[in-house]
Amino acid sequence: MDQFKRRFFPGKKKSRWEGAEAxxxxxEICSMATREHSSRQNKTKSKMQFLKKGSRSKEEHHAPAVCxxxxxxxxxxxVQEGRFLEACKTISRSAAEKQDCGSQYQAxxxxxxxxxxxxxxxxxxxxxxxxxxxxxxxxxxxxxNFEGPKPSTLQGGGLEAWDSQLQSLxxxxxxxxxxxxxxxxxxxxxxxxxxxxxxxxxxxxxxGRLGVCFLALYRVCFQExxxxxxxxxxxxxxxxxxxxxxxxxxxxxxxxxxxxxxxKAPPASKxxxxxxxxxxxxxxxxWMFQVxxxxxxxxxxxxxxxxxxxxxxxxRSQAESSYKTFLEIFQLLKETIIVGQNIGPxxxxxxxxxxxxxxxxxxNRYQKEGAPSFIQLHASAGTFPQLHVLENCCxxxxxxxxxxxxxxxxxxxxxxEVWSQDDLLIRVRALFQxxxxxxxxxxxxxxxxxxxxxxxxxxxxxxxxxxxTYKVLVKSLYTVVLGEYVHAxxxxxxxxxxxxxxxxxxxxxKEVLELDTIFGEREQDVDDRMPCWETIxxxxxxxxxxxxxxxxxxxxxxxxxxxxxxxxxxPRSSSDSDKRSCCCLQLWTSAWxxxxxPRWRWS
Length: 603
Known about the structure:
By secondary structure, the protein is mainly α. The chain has four domains: 2-67, no CATH class; 81-173, no CATH class; 178-279; 437-601, no CATH class. It is 71% helix and 0% strand. The termini are far apart. 27% of the residues are buried. Residues 3-20, 50-66, 260-270 and 572-603 have low confidence and may be disordered.
């Protein structure tokens, strides 16, 4: 501008040529000025745009912090008001904008657990806490089914862990309220204390404090803890039957609402307690079954061990006294059944079934091991251990009839009896054969001693005297002894002249009458003819033909009239000589016994 003034207003007048030059120069100066102005405007505009851009970036930097702060305030307010489900949904919407909200979820979880703690401790007002507890349950269920983006900074396993965390919190509370398990020695006192704790924890005040919805979850957690305590008691009770009995009766009363079956036990109340209504018996069925099964196992083991001791003692004792152990069997079985009745159903019926099964097992063992072993151990000269076995069979039969009245056990006992009786008859026959071999020639007292020994053994079987088995047994023994006596008499008379047979008539009469006295309690049917002195004395009245052939004919007649007395290995009369003349002694004895036994023995 100064140049412009100097050039165009110099203070003196220019020439025309000079004016044209000045015009051109003016045009150039204006053009330069315009370019300078435009340049300054562009710089100013650029500066303004830079300043505006800087201001906008600062606003964009501070805006998220302001929104996050406002969101935190909103969530804190919702948590404080106990609206946990709304807080979770609000956080979820923020997380959808790719914002990590782990700390906010953590704040919600802390608020929920605090509300639960207040409700469990009873420190807060129940009416105010119940809506919050319902919101806790709703938030936990929402988190369990949440399918949105997972917060990476959330501790403790994420939203899915809220359910397990809540249950863990409830279990800890239940653990703190129940007394810890103790040893078996203090079991009675502990069970009483545990029952009181269950009644207190699950009392009527619990539902008012937690509400129906939250109570259902607490009830499940509490029962799981209670089951855990009871399982520890079960495993620590060892093999003590009394401890399992205490657990069983406590479980029936506390968990299932049944009282003991003892007569002195007070009658159960018809109205269940609040705790009883909250307990779910299904939760404890497995534990109760384990107690019941172990209790039954211990009862059976105790019974089996006792019967085993009876068998061992019977095998080792003398035949005269060992039967007393078998007399104790019925009392033992009866006491076991009473134990089951005192416990109550269903144990009582199971114990009765178990007793019968155990008794059958005992009978099978006695048949296979006990009876043969006893006879073998006590088969010394002049003893009759088979009588002891037969007496035991009578005791066992009475025991069985007192238990069930029927069943396959009769066949087992009959089998033992038949085997023992056959063995006894073989032994008695062999004994009297040896004693009678030289009896009439030497007139020794061997026969008398054998008869006295057998008579004493029969008198010792006092528990068998009133049974049909005893009468059948005495008859069979009389048959064997008298048959051997007749056999020995005929054999001896064959060695003498017929004229001296009468010299032995007095001795034979005395001994035959003595046999009749010793075996006087033998069984005798109405149509059953028994040989006696009147029958045998005919041998001394053979007038017409006193020869060996006459003796054979008399013996054949005696055998036909009284079958089973004389052995089949003796030759018959001349008319029967073509028939079979011998037979196995043991088969004969067994066949005779089966023929003489009444039908009820084999039914």
